[in-house]
Amino acid sequence: MPLTRFFVLLVLLLSAAAASAEPRVVLDSTSVNLTDFRIGYYIDDSRELTYQQVRDRSFRETASTTSLGTNARVAWYKVILENATDSDLALDVQMPHAYHVESVAFHEERDGQLVRSEILDLDNLGNSGIMYHGVAVYPVTLPANATTTLYVRSFAYSHQWFALDIYDEEHSRQALVATNNDVALLVGMMLALVFYNFLLYFATSKLENIFYSFYLISGLVWIALSYGLVASLFDAYGDEVFMLNISLITMPIFLVLFMMAIFETKTRYRVEHRFLQALLVPLCVMFVWGLFDISAALKPASTAAVIMMVVTLSVTFSLLRKGNPLAKFFLVGHGFFVIFNVMAVLFYKGLIEPTYIASHGVGIGIMLEALMLAFIISHRIKILEDIRASQDELKKQAATDPLTRLYNRRYFFAEAGYLMEVAKAHQQPLAVLAIDIDRFKQVNDTHGHAVGDQVIITLARALKAQSRNKDLLARFGGEEFVMLLPETNTDQALACAERVRAAIAAQRIDLSPGKQLSLTVSIGVATVNLATDSIETALNRADKALYEAKHKGRNQVCLNNDNQTTEPGVTQKP
Asked: Which pTM value belongs to this model?
């Protein structure tokens, strides 16, 4: 019997010790700014316990910021506040994530008696004065040298993400003013990216831009909702607002669609495309489920997130192995997303200690991935521009003479046809010059082809200097060049030809110290009869005038006016 009494006494002593070991917050100053302290918690699986019933239950210890996972929809928290000062303390107990729950209740107890209760139903706030932009602010006055116990009941929609802070009046005001500045910055950056990508879509009609924009919209909606920006800006709470959490499901849907578009999996990577298609099926099922019961649809969200990460990473590694130039960048961005989301999932399930990075992991991961996806889009645009530039360069090479960089014969005829149509439409005059280097064969035979090439290059530069932007200048081969002059009548064409002849005659090419080579050309001019001429017939008449200039002694300009009205004072072919 004495032994039995001993064990009973020991049990009572241990129980008393356990009771006395309950975490408490001792306040020994009138300045109070507490964001990290110990509290008790009890998970109410029945979701029906009252304050009177729960106060006799055993509470487990945790931090004032904690996550109990998705299986703790209803939890009670116990905070023992001991005022160790000689004056009453007027404090605010803040629940910064109140916007994230269905309801929250505060029960204030002193000396074993209920002093005050405050219940918030976020679907029906009524005239409650303790909700401030998503933060529940419960004012409490602690008598001097007395202990007050606060019981807080949190009924969460999905996961039990809880925090309590205790402030004096000044610190409480500062905390409320500083709420969500970081989240507003993230949302603002993402809105800018959305606007930019919508502009890109309208400019390019690329599907990846529209998928990326909707991915960003889904991400910023979820960030703004989950981190309290919606509540802070719009005082919006309850079931209807909680429905916006469906963006957590639409976000991976648009990410997968973005991958299909940016990597062109449908046409280039059939196996990877089928894997991404298979991933879309459960995501779309979850989306439809969420339209009817968003709380239930979000329960498997963590598992779905793991599956999505595994599939998308596997596809990215496969694309990287196959040499896709964008895969490495996507892997970096998606790697950030995966790392921070794993931290967030562990936090939501209550498996790791709450930290800022863990609690904001999804938002940080979305932002980092969004920035990398923006880089991928920009990099792809650069790749396409490089390809287009290469194609343009090839077209230019096909259209130009490699020595002089003037247009060649083929391009001249194609462009001249267009210029003739323009001249006909506007009834504007058009003229053509045929230009040939005098005694060019002699230059080649005497000084070699290197000097001959230098002569041709010098002539080309002089022709460019004497031509207008709208003139069409081409090398037809060897020492023969052609100029087509839009909006130019006979007198203007002759004046232009004379300027060209004089400018070339003034050119000198250095052969050796003290020795130079002069250069002259003969030019034939013909104006185009828009009613009867083709560009070929006009060129033939310019060639006839050119041969006449050669016959008359070279370094001259001659006009062929066949099929034209004779103009007085102009040398014509007889």
From this structure: 0.61
Tokens of 184: 């507003």
Judgement on whether residues 52 and 86 belong to the same structural domain of the protein: yes
- Tell me, yes or no, whether 281 lies in a domain: yes
Q: 237 with 320, same domain?
A: yes
Please give the pLDDT value at position 562. 73
Q: Please tell me the number of Cα atoms within 13 Å of 41 on its side-chain side.
A: 21
- Output the six-digit token pair for 9: 């006494």
Number of residues that this document lists for the chain: 574
CATH number at residue 447: 3.30.70.270
Instruction: Show the low-confidence residues of the chain (pLDDT under 70).
Output: 1-21, 126-127, 178-179, 350, 392-393, 563-574
**Is the domain of 261 the same as that of 152?**
no
Contact 34, 150 (CB under 8 A): no
Domain match, 212 and 357 both = yes
Instruction: Note whether 331 and 451 are same-domain residues.
Output: no
Quote the CA–CA distance of 570 and 296 in Å, as a whole number: 95
DSSP string, 45-99: TTS---HHHHTTSPPEEEESEEE--TT-SEEEEEEEEEE-SSS-EEEEEEETTGG
Q: Does 571 map to a domain?
A: no
- Residue 473 counted as domain residue: yes
Give me the CATH number covering residue 67.
2.60.40.2380
Distance CA 243, CA 433 (A): 76
CA 188, CA 190: separation in Å to the nearest integer? Answer: 5
511, 475: one domain: yes
What local confidence, expressed as pLDDT, does residue 8 receive? 47
For residue 142, how many other CB atoms are within 10 A of its CB?
22
Burial 519-555 (b: 16+ CB within 10 A, else e): bebbbbbbbbbbeebebeebbebbbbbbbbbbeeeeb
Separation between Cα atoms, residue 408 and residue 398, nearest integer Å:
8
CA end-to-end distance (rounded Å), the chain: 149
Instruction: Provide the annotated active-site residues.
Output: 479
pLDDT the model gives residue 563: 60
How many domains does the chain fold into? 3
Domain extent for 444: 409-560
User: Tokens 């204030």, residue?
Assistant: 108
Quick one: 156 and 264 in the same domain?
A: no
Question: Could you give the CA distance from residue 413 to residue 537 in angstroms, rounded to a whole number?
Answer: 12
205 and 349 belong to one structural domain: yes
Strand 472-477 relative to strand 165-167, pairing: unpaired
User: Is residue 84 one of the residues assigned to a domain?
Assistant: yes
pLDDT in tens, 477-535: 888 999 999 999 999 999 999 999 999 998 888 887 778 888 899 999 999 988 888 89
Residue 199 pLDDT: 87
Measured CA to CA, the distance from residue 194 to residue 254 in angstroms comes to 13
Tokens of 334: 């998606």
Spell out where 143-234 has E strands: 147-156, 161-163, 165-167
Q: Which residue, of 342, 363, 392, is where some domain finishes? A: 392
d(CA 346, CA 352): 6
Query: Which pLDDT value is given to residue 370?
Result: 86
Domain boundary (392, 419, 446) is at 392
DSSP string, 216-243: HHHHHHHHHHHTTHHHHHH---HHHHHG
